[in-house]
Amino acid sequence: MSLESEELSVLDFIGGDERSQPFLQDEFDAQRYSNTVIECQEVAQALEHIASSVALLDRDLNQQVVSHHEDLLTQATGIEKLEGVLQMVQTRIESLQAGVQRIRVKITEPHSKIMSRTTQLARLQTVCELLRRLIRVLYLRKRLRVQLQGGLREVTKAAQSLSELDYLSQGVDLSGIEVLDSDWAWVSEARNKVITQAETMLSDGLESQNTSSVSTALQVFHHLSILQRNVQTRMQATLDRLQCDIETTLDSNALMAAASFDSPARSSGGRTSLPSVGSSAAWRASLWTRLDKVLDMVYNSCHQVFQLYKMVSRKRDSVTHVCFIEELQKCILWCQCSMFRLH
């Protein structure tokens, strides 16, 4: 009988034996099997069967070892070689880990120093930038005090100083610096003073047709970034004043009052009525006088607008060389007034 047939016979014997079935189950429980055997009072038979099965399996296992002796030795030798290879790999892994650890130790300290120095450098750059701004702000404030003492002659330079102060205070928090906190309110007052002076110069320059004063006022507004707002305000004030003067001058009640003062006439119940025969000449004279006055007002207002238009068309930014009128193109009221459209 061959080895394979003997192996099959052993398996068939164990598989066909009912008493061996519990041992072949995956959920075999030794304690439960023992309890079952004791309850059935078949302890001797069970021990005899187990002993014979163990002997059969032992004999079969011995035959397997004898039959596959060379293969088992070859596999054992291969396992030893595999263990040697695994040991070598393990040694190299440990060596690699040790090298990585040494490199980590060598890199960690320089990396920490670089990070620390980089943080210090960034902070030093921030402090240096803040100190440069601080020094410049202190210098500009000192210069601004001198410029304000110069009055209208230094108003343009004062506006330039204020403009630079506004630029230096943008994008950085300068609050909490004692040397600066005490003067911010003064800078705000100085700005308001310069704006008031420029507005006065613009108004007086337009009234007296002084192009130098108008040019200086526009330059101040441009430096303070309020050119469009102030020109629009000035144009609106001119239109409102002209409209009010026209309504007041050509008011029918005022005309009748002037005619009645020259030639008294009766009025019914205080209501406005047509001039009487005796006062018609006086009424016509008053009307023509007031019309002449209205035309003078319109002429003066249009002349001021035209004068302002010529100045903003000529003036340019000293750095970008952009004409002032390009900035005013965004103003709808300016576009209307530049065409002399009075409502």
Verbal overview:
This protein has 343 residues and is mostly helical. The protein contains 14 helices and no strands. It has helices at residues 3-16, 21-24, 30-39, 43-67, 69-149, 155-168, 178-181, 184-208, 211-223, 227-249, 252-262, 280-314, 324-328, 332-338. The radius of gyration is 55 Å and the shape is elongated.
Briefly, what is this?
With 343 residues, this protein is mostly helical.
What is Rg? 55 Å
Report the structural category: mainly alpha
- Tell the overall outline: elongated
Q: Count the DSSP helices.
A: 14
Distance between the termini: 128 Å
According to DSSP, the number of beta strands is 0
- The biggest beta sheet, please? none
Q: Report strand %.
A: under 5%
Low-confidence stretches: 1-8, 263-273, 339-343
Order of helix and strand elements from N to C terminus: HHHHHHHHHHHHHH
**Average of the residue pLDDT scores:** 76
Query: What portion of residues is helical?
Result: over 70%
Describe how the helices and strands are arranged.
Layout: H1 3-16, H2 21-24, H3 30-39, H4 43-67, H5 69-149, H6 155-168, H7 178-181, H8 184-208, H9 211-223, H10 227-249, H11 252-262, H12 280-314, H13 324-328, H14 332-338
Helix pairs in contact: 1-4, 5-6, 6-8, 6-9, 8-9, 9-10, 9-12, 10-12, 11-12
